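1st attempt posting a full record on here, be nice pls
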Amino acid sequence: MNFSDSFQTLDSLKIGEKQFVFYNISKLHDKYPAIQKLPKSKKILIENLLRLEDGKDVNKSLIEKVLQSPEKNHEIFFLPARVLMQDFTGVPAVADLAAMRDAVALKGKDPAKVCLCSHLSWCRGRRCGDLHLDMLRLRPTICVAALSFPFLCWWFTA
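the predicted structure (as tokens):
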């Protein structure tokens, strides 16, 4: 897929020895001052459009419409690059994992491979069920939630 940068917002940031590339919407402030006062959620949608500009599905014309009238409703593509979720109970994440396990099982694969902890370095190579005590000791919020929500208890034994 080819990406464009019609608004010249592609920027970089060097931290230590690492170079990071991002779309800097502050470069649009002079030409489109209204975006400075937008809520962060709309700024995220604008950054999303800049990041996805391919000249076909997300083109300069679409982005221009959004930038000229950011207060209006627009139908746009939204493909988040990151998702932040405030979750004190763990239930939404575990519900997603349960759905993923079901989907994996429907494809004839081993649903046990879908593990909440598989990406954490301290549990690599260990089965999820073996992590029950570690999770209770290291994550007190999960411990409390597990006592309150039978669904989490199911996850610990699944």
